[in-house]
Amino acid sequence: MGSYSDFSEADLATLKLAKHELETPPLGMKLAAIVGAPVEKLIAKLPTAANDKVNDATQAALRKCLRIALKTLGKQGEGALEIAAAGTPSTSTAAAGSKQRAKPSNLLHKFAVATTGAAGGAFGLFALPVELPVTTTLMFRSICDIARSEGEDLASADTQLQCLTVFGMGGHSAADDEADFGYFIVRGALAQAVSKASAEMATKGFAAHGSTALLKLMQTVAARFSVQVSEQVAAKSIPAIGAVLGAMVNTVFIDHFQNVAHGHFTVRRLERRYGEAAVHAAYDGIDIALD
After folding, report:
1. Which domain holds residue 183?
2. At 171, is the secondary structure helix, strand, or coil?
3. Which InterPro entries match (predicted)?
4. Among 102, 289, 17, 277, which residue's Cα sits nearest to residue 9?
5. Does a structural domain hold residue 20?
6. CA-CA distance, 188 to 167, in Å (whole number)?
7. pLDDT of residue 40
8. Sign of torsion, CA 103 289 9 184?
9. CA atoms of 258 and 51, how far apart (whole Å)
10. Which of 6, 7, 81, 269 is most buried, judging by how many CB atoms fall within 10 Å of its CB?
């Protein structure tokens, strides 16, 4: 049982909300509620070539996000914040160096992703190689915006990689063997790869693009993210799903990862205030089933 004595009442409430966001129902359950069918059965009905398309599209999407991070690494002001939601008031606030934590533009990003989902719903699996990199980049911008709102420095290599790893925290990989891994276990599994890749990015910048450490991290994240993408694709594979339902599926998709990002960067903000061990202990002591 974690000790809450050092936490302010507001911060403890924030940590409880973060745990709710990080331990929310899996994406597949959320999508099943939208499309009215178990996602596992829908995945089984996908063409054999679908898995290859999902894996290729996932890798391409994450590579694009990584290129965005590398190109903006070390730049200050507007250049460093290109990875966040461009042109929003909150971004301008961050660029000006304000200490105030402006709220992220979640609704703006959801609207943009819903638009790409409408196109995906109209064209199905054929649209995946075009749609997913766009959708993932928009989601990455949203994750970066959330990170900024929680006091992260977007010009930092570690912060940019933490944003990338959110895609690996949103679900399980095939190697997990259906185990119910908690947030800190998944985060710990990614930590060493993040540390090595962060060091290379900090010293080499864009030249680190093809480094072994970065590629290993990306492959690890991609293995976990592709599971969520498969569920998204399956949900949109229903015949005549149409643009409206496609937009709804994409909205659930980004909402899921926005929740994970909010939870992750809230925990990191509290760790900077109270220390990692104290936050971990308090997090473990929270029983969200009783809240």
Report:
1. 26-290
2. coil
3. EcsC
4. 17
5. no
6. 15
7. 86
8. negative
9. 25
10. 81
Tens digits of per-residue pLDDT, 64-88? 888 887 776 545 444 444 555 443 4
Q: Tell me what percent of the chain is helix, strand and coil, each rounded to the nearest 5.
A: 75, 0, 25
Structure tokens given for 51: 């898995």
Give domain status of residue 252, yes or no. Answer: yes
Are residues 149 and 102 in contact, defined by beta-carbon separation less than 8 angstroms? Answer: yes
Whether the Cβ atoms of residue 38 and residue 194 lie closer than 8 Å to each other? no
Give the model's pLDDT for residue 76.
42
Task: Fill in the DSSP letter of residue 100.
Answer: S
**Residue given tokens 């990306």 in the structure block:** 218
The mean-pLDDT minimum among 125-134, 144-153, 272-281 falls in: 125-134
The count of C-alpha atoms lying within 13 angstroms of the C-alpha of 83, restricted to the half-sphere facing its C-beta, is: 31
Report the number of distinct structural domains present in the chain.
Answer: 1
